[in-house]
Please model this.
Amino acid sequence: MIVILLFAVSGVLAQSGGGFDIPWFTIDNGGGQSSGGGFSVSGTAGQPDAGQMSGGGFSVSGGFWNAVPISPVKSYLPLVIRNFPPCSVWVSTDVPKAIPDNNVNGVESVVVVPATSIPPAEITVQIDQLLHGYTGDLRISLIGPSGLTVVLVNRVGGDGDNFIGTRLSDSYITPIASGTPPFTGNFRPDNSLLPFVGQNPSGTWRLKVADLATDDVGLLNAWRLELCT
Model:
């Protein structure tokens, strides 16, 4: 059944003529004629149909599309606007760094955040490339300018190889311990970065990588620090 609507359908129906009242009528069973008052409306449903129908001192012109019902329902979609915070990124420039085997002191790479920086509301560490043949040997920590240390990755991945394009942030859902080497993608670190939030970010930040078992060595080739305010 098709409901013939003669109002508020911009671009589909056009009306012309003097004052009049239009009752609701339907065209049933695939086609036919409905009438009332001083006019009649005829048409065929289920196929392209366009033209002009008139009566009672006015005319109604319009058309149908194939298999598209005319509906009186108006749909309103919500407009969602997300305000992405401004972020600054500092990329390591003192790499590559060799990761010594079975050495708790490990190796450190630094980035320097200038004194004009605003305290961050969100922190992300991205390990662009860390090559190592047994990721389960590694403990990776972020050390802030104040000396505050957060262990981001603590011996995950077993005998798998490497960290490639690994992003670590509290805003991500999947724990890094649930990932598999080379851990490409977005992960929540083993420990929260929240202690750094709101702190003065100015100064030297260090990424520390320590190999805590024997037999394998590695290389830290690239990483970056992202601070969002």
Summary: The chain has a mean pLDDT of 79. Residues 104 and 210 are 5 Å apart (CA to CA). The chain has two domains: 2-64, 87-228. The first strand starts at residue 2 and ends at 3.
